[in-house]
Specification:
Length: 209
């Protein structure tokens, strides 16, 4: 589908993708201007659509590339992950925070994509997120220290309960997250992390020996 684009030299690809990514990161999918993209990339507008077909296809291509970079970052850092469930989840939150600081444009891009998802691409993003979530969940179990759990605890159910708590916390702040700028969102992430620690301490008492 993207053969025309992937035939051009890597440096040219990088220049075009950088211009498009920055525009989407600043303005989100609906308000992003393809005119601004081609002006910054210094290519004709027709060339952009020759490469990608449509604004939607361009956006999804960028999502796929961005997720690849994010997953690679997570996997690299995951080598030092703690063995305990709750410590591991907090560590993952810290990694995401580090990614946001190291890759601010990508962070803004994800921020708009997954918190302000346009209806036109919700199904496409959901299918991509489901694949990532499944892989992420499996990585959570790899090397997990199960010895800390009480003997009568179903570990898979325990993990599911923890995720439900995390989802509930996120939903509480979802409206606020959507209404603020990404850089302010980073400060809120720190607050969310502290709140998670408190709930995790309560859950530990019921799940751990």
């Amino acid at each position: 589908m993207y053969e025309n684009f992937e035939r051009i030299p890597p440096d040219e690809q990088k220049k075009i993708l950088g211009a498009c990514l920055e525009e989407f990161a600043l303005h989100g999918y609906e308000k992003a201007s393809t005119n601004a993209m081609v002006k910054k990339a210094k290519i004709p507008k027709g060339t952009l659509f020759f490469y990608f077909g449509s604004k939607k296809d361009l956006y999804l291509y960028l999502i796929d590339r961005a997720v690849e970079r994010f997953v690679a970052f997570i996997h690299q850092a995951d080598a030092d992950r703690p063995a305990g469930l709750f410590e591991r989840l907090l560590y993952r939150g810290k990694i995401r925070f580090q990614f946001a600081l190291q890759e601010p444009v990508l962070y803004q891009f994800f921020y708009h994509a997954f918190l302000n998802t346009p209806e036109a691409i919700q199904a496409d993003l959901q299918s991509r997120y489901s694949i990532y979530a499944s892989t992420s969940r499996q990585l959570l179990y790899d090397g997990l220290d199960r010895s800390k759990f009480k003997d009568d605890i179903d570990i898979e159910q325990a993990v599911e309960l923890v995720y439900l708590v995390l989802e509930g916390i996120l939903r509480r702040y979802e409206g606020l997250l959507k209404a603020i700028q990404p850089e302010v969102g980073l400060e809120l992430v720190e607050k969310l992390t502290g709140e998670c620690r408190g709930y995790f301490e309560i859950l530990k008492r019921g799940m751990y020996k």
